[in-house]
Amino acid sequence: MDFELSALIVLLVLTYFQLFGHRVPIKRNRIFLSITLVELFAVLWSLTVRTLICSRGVSAFEKMHMCIGIYYMLVYGVVLLVMAYFTTWTGRSLKRERFGYLPVLLPVAVYAEEIIRNFITGHLYSYDVQCGFLETAGTGILNAVVVYCLLFSLIYCMLRVKGNAFARLMVISVLAVLFGAAMVVQSMVRTVIFLDFIVAVTLVVLYFVMQNPSDMLDNNTHVLSRNMLDEILSADIDAGRSFNLVVLALDEFKFVNKTFGVAVGDMMLMQVANYLSSIGRHGLVYRYGSDQFILQLYGDEKRLQTKIELVRERFRHPWITEEVFVMMSTTVCCVCCPEDGNELENLIDVVDYSVLSAKKMGKGNIVYARDLDLHSIKKEKAIEKAIEEAIEQDTVEVYYQPIFNVERQCYTSAEALVRIQDDLLGNLPPETFIPIAERNGSIIRLGTMIFEKVCRFISEYNLRDTDIEYIEVNMSVVQCMQRGFVEALNEIMDKYGVSHDQINLEITETAAVNSLTILQENIEQLYQQGIRFSLDDYGSGYATIGYIHQLPFEIIKLDKLMVWDAFENERAGITLKHTVGMLKELKLRILAEGVETEEQRARLSSIGCDYLQGWYYSKAVPESEFAQLIKKVS
Ligand code: C2E
Ligand code: CA
Ligand code: CA
Fold first, then answer.
1. What three-state secondary structure class fits 634?
2. Taking all residues of the chain, what is their mean pLDDT, rounded to a whole number?
């Protein structure tokens, strides 16, 4: 009796937490609540029946075998629910399995048959005046159902669970073993009923390990976390529910953090989250990225439009904390399921792509995924895959384009240019895949690989013994802004015995520079060590004069479009001449790119360009061909 009472208290507390704590409306939470409630009723029922036995005597109770039948129905029902819980937890619908619902329906059928038959015949137990209630072969069948359900849940979780849930799997396994042992002991010791207490404690452990609200909610804003987005969207997609996603990407939120401090920034995020929760009664609010939220709405287009208007209206007013008033703007993207994507991965790609497209259009925009060219997402994904494969299989190639030194009248350097040849997509232009690699971060590994290939080339072909003084390597600013960037380059150069003056890094000013300080620190450190820097694509609109003052460039590479323009248009010609004059006065050396004709070569040399690069001399060629080229000419 004491064990039953303790179980009752534990279960009541657990129910209270679930009903009155943060409630996350997902299927597995509903199943977990059902498990707790069914077990709670089982314990309550057991206590009631025992009280009845005490007050009315066993003989009266004997006639009421329905009472024990109900207890059996509840406790064994818990096990079936546990199995439903674990299959849901894996995030994979049984509908998608080759075997379908059969392994789950089988124990349910056996359970239903045994329980219903018992209500008529009372065959699950017998009564003996001396020994009390005795279990029969029927109970043995139900116990087999329990063992089956536990084993099935365990194996299914092990095979199907995604991500790093190893620790949780271990806990489930230990619990399953302990529970099995408790069942065996209980079947031998009939004098004390402690199994309900064990079930209650097991549920508490499961609650904290698997149902922990802090895993489901974002720590700062208390809206649903990113993990939950995946789980809930998957379940909705599986169930064929349609919904709309309103994605809010705060514009320049970094500015708020920088100006007012992170604490105020956090408060602002909290306010946005609270506001979204207050208008999102018919939907769910998630924290999607550091400065991004998603409002998931079930319902029609009208509801979507109303909510969007509310959001836009709210952002016309300041966000207020005790100390500051801040005006924030947000970019809004609308993605509809199933219209814009009917699989989770696909839908998340559409969300990311919409945000990126909206941001490109400027601050405070609203974008509907249906108006975007979603085809390009597929293409981008294919390119991401090709980059990944090229890195994995080491098929990334580096070509070299010679650079002509006007004063010495020979090639004294070359630019390393990456090439990826994909089986499906063919020859991929770097102008297409480099920006994609920068966006998804693979540029770090790709860039390191290119740098290593260049160093190996310098050392293998003994460039020291030729006129080639150094190789120009394109560095993405995303790479240069990494901490540990300097150490990584040094390590590679040491490995191949390449000295710092044999490397020149080309940098383009891009909008991607979000931390000029780290970039400056890294560049300064490498410069001190003797590495030289070129500013790439000068005159293309990206590289500006201000940049030249901030970073220690020695060579300025005039963009090929600027060069070509100068030969098409008189005014552009004058601009180019004076640009060269100005850069010379700043004691910078000048390289003209895109030299394709004799006329260009002659004029660019005469206005004072120090280096010339272009198809007039040679296209970028594989390393062996380049080695031949420098041998022949030098
Ligand atoms: P970029 O750094 O401006 O490289 C010069 C581009 O112009 C190269 O294109 C080169 O093949 C091309 N080019 C050179 N001379 C001529 C010419 O006379 N006429 C014409 N029409 N084109 C000429 P490529 O190899 O397709 O590279 C495109 C861009 O991709 C590069 O522009 C650079 O921004 C990026 N890239 C290439 N390799 C790398 C790399 O290893 N790392 C990084 N981060 N970016 C790279
Ligand atoms: Ca370049
Ligand atoms: Ca360039």
1. coil
2. 88
Please identify which residue in the block is written with the tokens 């050396």. Answer: 589
Distance 170 CA to ligand 2 centre (A): 52
**Tokens encoding 623:** 């390393």
Q: Rounded CA gap, 275 and 101, in Å?
A: 42
Q: Which helix (H) or strand (E) holds 213?
A: helix 213-216
Query: For the chain, what's the residue count?
Result: 634
The rounded distance, in Å, linking the Cα atoms of 112 and 119 is: 11
Q: How far apart are the C-alpha atoms of 617 and 602, rounded to whole Å?
A: 13
Distance CA 313, CA 317 (A): 7
Pocket of ligand 1, candidates 474, 478, 565: which has the most ligand atoms within 8 Å of its Cβ, to mutate? 474
Ligand 1 close to Cβ of residue 474 (< 6 A): yes
User: pLDDT, tens digit, for every residue of 13-39?
Assistant: 999 988 887 777 788 889 999 999 999
Nearest residue (by CA) to ligand 1, atom 27, is: 430
Alpha carbons 607 and 581: distance in angstroms, whole number: 8
Phi and psi of 116, rounded to 5°? -65, -45
Looking at residues 511-537, what average pLDDT do you find?
84
Please tell me the distance between residue 572's alpha carbon and the centre of ligand 2 in angstroms: 22
Q: Is the CB of 539 under 6 A from ligand 1?
A: no
- Domains detected in the chain: 2-212 (1.20.1070), 217-372 (3.30.70.270), 381-633 (3.20.20.450)
Nearest CA to ligand 1 atom 12: 594
Task: For ligand 1, say whether the CB of 594 is within 6 Å of any of its atoms.
Answer: yes
- CA atoms lying within 13 Å on the CB side of residue 554: 13
Identify the DSSP state of 322: S
Span from the CA of 595 to the centroid of ligand 1 (angstroms): 13
**Helix or strand run (H / E) with residue 623:** helix 623-633
User: What pLDDT was estimated at residue 611?
Assistant: 98
Measured over the CA atoms of residue 337, residue 341, residue 345 and residue 351, the dihedral's sign is negative
Interval 595-605: pLDDT, tens: 999 999 999 99
Which residue has tokens 């010609």? Answer: 573
| Per-residue model confidence as pLDDT tens digits over 534-554 | 999 998 866 567 778 888 999
Q: Is 77 exposed, middle or buried (0-12, 13-18, 19+ CB in 10 A)?
A: buried
Half-sphere exposure of residue 176: CA atoms within 13 angstroms, side-chain side = 21
DSSP-derived letter for residue 395 is -
Question: Which tokens belong to 43?
Answer: 């314990």
Give me the torsion for CA of 579, 580, 582, 584, rounded to 10°.
Answer: 160
Question: Which ligand is the nearest neighbour of the Cα of 475?
Answer: 1
| Distance in angstroms (rounded) separating the CA atoms of residues 617 and 611 | 12
Instruction: Give CA–CA dist 152/172, Å, rounded.
Output: 12
Residue 396: nearest ligand to its CA? 1
Phi, psi of 224 (to 5 degrees): -65, 145
Gap from CA of 417 to ligand 1 centroid (Å): 6
Return phi, psi of residue 280, to 5°: -95, 40
| Amino acid at site 76 | Y
Neighbouring C-beta atoms of residue 27, cutoff 10 Å: 16
Q: Which two tokens stand for residue 462?
A: 């003994």
Ligand 1 atom closest to the Cα of residue 615 is 18
What counts of helices (H) and strands (E) characterise the chain? 25, 19
- Nearest residue to 538 via CA among 606, 503, 588: 588
Bridge partners of 289, per DSSP, are 292
**Tokens in use for 411?**
């090639």
